[in-house]
């Protein structure tokens, strides 16, 4: 037998079979006052939720300590049990029959044949005796009408309208004259009407649909005397929302649809927005909602009753927002406890009301995200200052940079130790002092790539070379020396040989030292001469306003300038571009390396 289920597997010679014994859904019902009646076999018992004293503190999901009272017995085996709308009567249905009892004294008031039984909002009721015969009775238990549908009625549902459904469609009728109101082509598992009678939830195999019933449109159509065809009144229903989730069972509280799904999560839906209230640890089934306690109650197959908090003020607030009545919604907001304000803010955000969500939210992380969405950097900065979170400072710095608030961007990036961001900022501003400070900070933080770029932009090539050697990037140091500091090549090659000799002596011997083989290095003497001349100009940072005067000469290499006798002018151009326009460095460096080799 499967654990915690009524399924049992039987094995025999030619295979196995699984059968279900009994039912997992408890036969129970709760009225609006909190009185619950349930059936255990033929025995009828009752409990009262309000019997739990206010001095007893019960947490959400905790089993209520209820006193069970014997109410009586039933003459048939109950398969369903349901209070009528005012709670005075209870119907028990099973074994192809129904019996209506008084809820308090458990006295028999009426009985008859029925495969299914449903109540109307006014206390009338209908029974399905077969797939082709439905009877409607008055509040006084008198038969009023027999309906014989033109299709096979597999199920009937009560509520504002009488509903009959086949395997692939459902038809709605009015209770008084059984006139066709609307046919909807959908597979229906269950139907739930709101108390107002204006909203209905249709639960299907994989989805549920929230529809609005336009009773005024229907009444106007019927009063006009026009003929109602087999499809009914076209505008009788309006589809509001569709949710891809299977409903186990559900109830309405105002305009809020509460349900549990196949994953046993307790959810509620307002305006198409689904919110998970609780994750249930076992199968539970909804009994009802007590507005006086702001709690929704569920029952499991062992007849344990649990309650979960769902604030009526929260539901009313969301409902008013959906209707666009923000003035009344704001009047209700103070009555919602602070711990629920983040839930309210998430709802407002989903409706695109981000500014209102920011005012309501209390969680700092959530408020920071909302402030970032709205571009309210001052609020985001206050939150980041309190939180002292590097990730928040980094996000804020990036947004400040993109919106042109560079002073704030610099402050945020310093707090976040965002070295790459600071490099972008300082290089864009041509801030040599900032880049110099960043070079020192980067070395302290072990970010050698950023430190190298800072030193390179400042023209501190010797320090670049030293950093590469200290970082054990000796081959890169040798190539850099060949390109920018020819006088240092011999020194770096010696270090490279020594290091490479540890792993590959032959490769180490193959390295050429320009002091030993100057002929193997093209324009070697010219490169040394150019380096000497260029060294004098390093560290000179001309104003950015002069950039366009020198940009058209960025293609000229120093070797070519030396040969043309225009080296001084070329050096000024080179280091102007070098110091203020890092994007041009690649072209400049490549030109120098190509000629010096």
Automatic annotation (TrEMBL):
The COPA/B TPR domain, residue ranges: 317-497
Gene Ontology MF terms: structural molecule activity
COPA/B second beta-propeller domain mapped to chain residues: 41-300
An annotated GO BP: vesicle-mediated transport
Record InterPro entries: Beta-prop_COPA/B_2nd, TPR_COPA_B, WD40_repeat_dom_sf
Assigned GO CC terms: COPI-coated vesicle membrane; Golgi membrane; membrane coat
Lipoprotein recorded as keyword: no
A Pfam family recorded for this sequence: B-prop_COPA_B_2nd
Topology versus the membrane: Peripheral membrane protein
Keyword Cytoplasm listed: yes
Keywords per UniProt: Cytoplasm, Cytoplasmic vesicle, ER-Golgi transport, Golgi apparatus, Membrane, Protein transport, Repeat, Transport, WD repeat
Tree of life domain: Eukaryota
Entry similarity comment: Belongs to the WD repeat COPB2 family.
Full protein name: Coatomer WD associated region domain-containing protein
Organism of this sequence: Gossypium gossypioides
